[in-house]
Specification:
alpha/beta, 483 residues, 22% strand
Length: 483
C-alpha cells in the first residue's frame, strides 16, 4: 500500500507541536512522533493523539444546485459578492499564513478587511499590541518566578513540560486564577489591584491566554503588570496560526472581535459573511443563538479544509485540502516560524480564482510566500508608549458562576471524555451530593444534569472544559441543585 508522509504541526492550539501525518492511498491517516521538533520534542497531548478523528470529517464544495463542483462554488461565491453590501470576513488562524494573505487580497478587492476574531486587539491601544506577541518557550524554563493565569493541564498541555523543567531549575510558580494547580508552589486568588503582591521583576515570566472571548480589561491588567515589573509576558493563543494571522493583519484597531461580528449580524449591520477555516458556531459559547444569527445573513460563504457545523448551513462552500497537505507556513505563540512539508496549493488556487472572478488579479503561492517571509521574520520592538488606562475590574457576582475552561476540544467541536463539571468540596457538602451522582445546573436556556469532579476552587465557581447547551456566554450565573 502506498503511503505519503507529511511533516506538519498539530492544529489543536498555538503551541504548534510538530508531528508526522501518514496518509495511505485510501485516505486513512495516522500520527507519528517528530522527536527532532524543537517545540515539543516528539511529545503530543490527548488532542494531538486524536488528530485522525479531527481530519476524518473531510470537506466538500457546495453551490446552488445539486452536484456542484469547486469551480461552480467559486463562481457562485463571486456572483454573490459582486452585488453584496455590508461584507465581513473572518480568518481566526486555522490555516496557513499564505492563505490568510490571499484572503486579504480578496478583502481588498471587496473594500473590506479581514477580522481575526480577537476582540482585545480592537479594544486596546495599538502601541500595546506588541506586548501580545510571542515570547520564547525556552525562556519559561529559566525564569526565577512564573505566574500562570491559565490552567496549562487543560488548555495548553505541552506547556507543562516547560513548567516542570523550570521547577527543576528552581523556578517559583504561582497560579493566579480559579483552580489550584498541583505544579504550582502557590495558588492565589487575587484581584488586579493585588497583583503587586506577586513580587515580579525582570527575571519573571507571566503566562496568560488571549482568545476571541478574552476580556480586554483582563488582558490590559496583565499587560500593565508586565510593564510595571519588567516581567516578560507570554500571551498564549488558541489556534495553530493565531500568532501569524494577527501579526499579518494590519487593521487590528479597525477589525471586529468575534462577539462584535455576531452582534452586528443580529443587528443587520452585516449581510454577507465570508469565512476562511473559521466556524463561529464552534467558536461562540451559545451554539443555538449563533446558528440562528448566521441564518439571517443574505450570504454565508465558507472556504474550508474540513466539514464543520457552519458548512452545513452555508450558502456556498469552497473546499480546500487538509491542513497537513498544504504548502505554507505558520507562526506559533512563541513567534516561531514553522513550515509545512506539504506541496498542495489547492486553497491558494481557489482564492486566486475567486479574486479573478471578482475582477481583480490572480496570484500564486511563491508570491504570497515571499510576502509572508518579509512580514514575519522581522523583530517586533516593544513600544515604550504602552500604558493602559481606565481599566475596569469585573464586579463581584453572588451565587454560582459557570465558566468555560477553553481547550482544543472545545474550539474545534471534537468529542472528549471531559463529560463533567469541576466543583469544590464545599458545594458537594452543601448540596449533599453522593458519589456517582450528578449536579443540576440551570440558566435562562434551561437545565442540564452533569457528572462532577472535585477540585480546589473558590466558593461559587464551577468550571467546564466542554461546551454545554445551557451556556449563553463564556461566564454565566447558574442555579445549582443536587440530582
Amino acid at each position: 500500500m502506498k503511503e505519503s508522509i507529511y511533516q506538519t504541526v498539530c492544529p489543536g492550539c498555538g503551541i504548534g507541536c510538530g508531528l508526522y501525518i501518514r496518509e495511505d492511498d485510501q485516505g486513512a491517516i495516522s500520527t507519528d512522533f517528530l522527536k527532532s521538533n524543537p517545540v515539543n520534542l516528539g511529545k503530543l497531548c490527548r488532542f494531538g493523539m486524536k488528530l485522525p478523528h479531527y481530519y476524518s470529517s473531510g470537506s466538500f464544495s457546495k453551490a446552488d444546485g445539486p452536484g456542484s463542483s469547486k469551480e461552480d462554488a467559486i463562481r457562485d461565491a463571486a456572483a454573490r459578492l459582486k452585488g453584496a453590501e455590508k461584507v465581513a470576513m473572518l480568518s481566526v488562524g486555522n490555516t496557513t499564513c499564505e492563505e490568510h494573505i490571499a484572503f486579504g487580497r480578496i478583502a481588498q478587492t471587496l473594500g473590506s478587511v479581514v477580522n481575526t476574531g480577537i476582540q482585545a486587539y480592537s479594544k486596546l491601544p495599538s502601541e500595546c499590541h506588541s506586548y501580545l506577541e510571542g515570547m520564547s518557550f525556552q525562556d519559561i524554563e529559566h525564569a526565577n518566578k512564573i505566574v500562570l493565569f491559565i490552567d496549562p493541564y487543560v488548555q495548553y498541555p505541552l506547556l507543562v513540560r516547560r513548567l516542570l523543567a523550570a521547577k527543576r531549575n528552581n523556578s517559583h510558580i504561582i497560579s493566579v486564577g480559579t483552580k489550584e494547580l498541583h505544579l504550582a508552589d502557590e495558588n492565589l486568588s487575587l484581584a488586579p489591584e493585588q497583583y503587586g503582591q506577586l513580587g515580579l521583576d525582570n527575571n519573571s515570566v507571566i503566562i496568560t491566554d488571549l482568545h476571541p472571548h478574552t476580556d480586554a480589561n483582563d488582558i490590559g491588567q496583565v499587560i500593565n503588570l508586565s510593564l510595571e515589573t519588567g516581567a516578560k509576558m507570554l500571551a498564549m493563543k488558541p489556534f495553530v496560526n493565531s500568532e501569524g494571522v494577527n501579526r499579518l493583519s494590519q487593521v487590528k484597531n479597525d477589525a471586529h472581535g468575534l462577539s462584535q461580528l455576531m452582534d452586528d449580524i443580529k443587528k443587520g449591520n452585516i449581510k454577507t459573511l465570508v469565512l476562511l477555516d473559521s466556524d463561529p458556531i464552534e467558536l461562540m459559547p451559545d451554539t443555538d443563538e449563533t446558528m440562528e444569527s448566521l441564518k439571517k445573513l443574505d450570504n454565508l460563504i465558507v472556504i474550508s479544509s474540513r466539514k464543520s457545523l457552519v458548512t452545513e448551513i452555508a450558502d456556498v462552500v469552497i473546499s480546500t485540502e487538509p491542513l497537513y497537505r498544504k504548502a505554507g507556513t505558520f507562526m506559533n505563540s512563541e513567534g516561531r516560524f514553522q513550515e509545512n512539508s506539504g506541496t498542495d496549493v489547492t486553497g491558494i488556487k481557489a482564492l486566486s480564482f475567486l479574486n479573478k472572478e471578482l475582477g481583480s488579479e490572480e496570484f500564486g503561492y511563491e508570491q504570497l510566500h515571499e510576502q509572508v517571509k518579509a512580514a514575519l521574520t522581522k523583530e517586533i520592538p516593544k513600544s515604550g508608549l504602552c500604558k493602559i488606562e481606565n481599566l475596569v475590574t469585573a464586579p463581584h457576582t453572588d451565587g454560582h458562576v459557570l465558566k468555560y475552561l477553553y481547550n482544543p476540544f472545545m474550539w474545534s467541536n471534537q468529542p472528549d471524555d471531559n463529560d463533567f463539571v469541576i466543583i469544590n468540596l464545599n458545594l458537594v457538602k452543601d448540596l449533599k451530593l453522593k458519589k456517582g451522582g450528578k449536579i443540576s445546573l440551570t440558566s435562562d436556556k434551561g437545565t442540564i444534569k452533569m457528572r462532577y469532579s472535585i477540585e480546589k476552587l473558590p466558593d461559587g465557581m464551577i468550571l467546564t472544559a466542554r461546551k454545554l447547551p445551557i451556556s449563553l456566554s463564556n461566564t454565566i450565573n447558574v442555579k445549582v441543585e443536587g440530582s
